[in-house]
Design brief:
By secondary structure, this protein is an alpha/beta fold. The protein is 40% helix and 23% strand. It folds into two domains: 11-258, pyruvate-formate lyase- activating enzyme, CATH 3.80.30.20; 303-379, Arc Repressor Mutant, subunit A, CATH 1.10.10. It is built from 14 helices and 17 strands.
């Protein structure tokens, strides 16, 4: 298969909503539990100011409203959020995605979903096992996932993504298999499944360190990952990226933009942008509000080798790889010049292969993609 591609001028727009009903035990994202309508309004005021200041002179190809939990804003504020976003000129076929927590789709939010021009909703299901959801600090039940899917379908949104996690506290290969079965029974168009990472400073990390939280061992987690690949392939939606699967033709174009190194603009507290080799990250919530949406925490100009290496690291996460020659032309440097020895060794070890202009992991290398990427980074 030829690798997935996007035009070089693809521009993604990401909007970060930094609020949740409750902070999950594993989460280290820049978000906080909040139900303060006045704070929501201050955030939207600042976001509108930032949108006015950052609006680029080109069409947006994909839009992703993420968080946090955008649906915690409620229906009226979701509509206001969209009113800000739709001031950006966008392509006629722009992909527009909204993240949602299954426990936040009340009637007012459901009405807003039906009114917005969304092309896909990504539901953070994570698990269909009550005990695993509780261990993660999720606010929803398995039954609420089913109900949320029904809301999305009733709203007429064309595409549904389910977001799952494995390697969870108390999880076994059997409970993971049951979660996958329940998820696929809902007929998602796209499924994301990430191995749990214990991030420093989270309640989960504290529980693991204290011995009060027990995670599956490496063998069990590896079994879960292998089962995931087998089941998805059998269901006609094989993995097209290390952690993402889709029915033919309905991969996430917004995320593909990240994996292929295309430009993206991030709005909201803590959001990151990369435009024409310039990267910056917005300040976190308090400073963002104080600066009325125009507060940058850091900014850097990416050198050509760093830009190419980043493209390689992300592009190799794709099952069919990426067009290395095009990436080298865009960055003005070759991979052989910056990591040639490591590249030759990975090819010799049967983990990477060149297929015309494309560079990809081999069938043996793809399940070991993180190892392959680590070896390139070491170089």
């Amino acid at each position: 298969m030829p690798p997935l591609s996007l035009p070089e001028d693809h521009l993604g727009l990401y909007v970060h909503v930094p609020f949740c009903v409750r902070k999950c035990a594993y989460c280290d994202f820049p978000s906080q539990a909040c139900a303060d309508g006045a704070l929501f309004d201050r955030y939207l005021d600042a976001l509108a100011r930032e949108a006015d200041a950052r609006r680029p002179g080109r069409l947006v190809s994909s839009i992703y409203l993420g968080g946090g939990t955008p649906t915690v804003l409620g229906g009226a504020r979701l509509r206001r959020l969209w009113a800000i976003v739709e001031t950006f000129p966008r392509a006629d076929d722009a992909e527009i995605t909204l993240e949602a927590n299954p426990g936040t789709l009340g009637d007012d939010v459901a009405a807003a979903l039906a009114a917005l021009p969304l092309t896909r909703v990504s539901l953070g299901a994570q698990s269909f096992h009550p005990g695993e959801l509780a261990a993660l600090g999720r606010i929803h039940s398995p039954a609420e996932i089913d109900a949320a899917v029904a809301v999305v379908r009733a709203a007429g949104i064309p595409r549904l993504n389910l977001d799952l996690m494995y390697g969870l506290p108390g999880q076994t290969p059997a409970t993971w298999a049951a979660t996958l079965e329940r998820a696929l029974a809902l007929r998602p168009d796209h499924l994301s499944a990430y191995a749990l990472i214990v991030e420093d400073g989270t309640p989960l990390a504290a529980g693991v360190a204290a011995g009060t939280v027990t995670l599956p061992d490496e063998d069990a987690e590896a079994e879960m990952g292998a089962h995931l690949a087998d089941v998805l392939a059998g269901a006609g939606m094989p993995l097209y990226e290390v952690s993402n699967a889709a029915r033919p033709g309905v991969h996430s174009r917004h995320n593909l933009g990240y994996w292929l190194g295309r430009d993206y603009l991030g709005l909201g507290p803590g959001a990151v942008s990369t435009l024409l080799g310039l990267r910056w990250r917005n300040a976190l919530l308090d400073a963002y509000l104080a600066g009325d949406g125009v507060a940058v925490a850091y900014c850097e100009r990416l050198a050509a080798p760093a830009r190419l290496l980043e493209r390689v690291m992300l592009g190799l996460r794709l099952r069919d790889g990426f067009d290395l020659a095009a990436a080298e032309a865009a960055c003005g440097v070759t991979l052989a010049a910056i990591a040639g020895d490591a590249l030759l060794r990975l090819v010799a070890d049967g983990l990477l292969t060149r297929d015309g202009a494309a560079l990809r992991c081999t069938d043996a290398g793809f399940p070991l993609a993180n190892t392959v990427l680590a070896r390139l980074m070491d170089e």
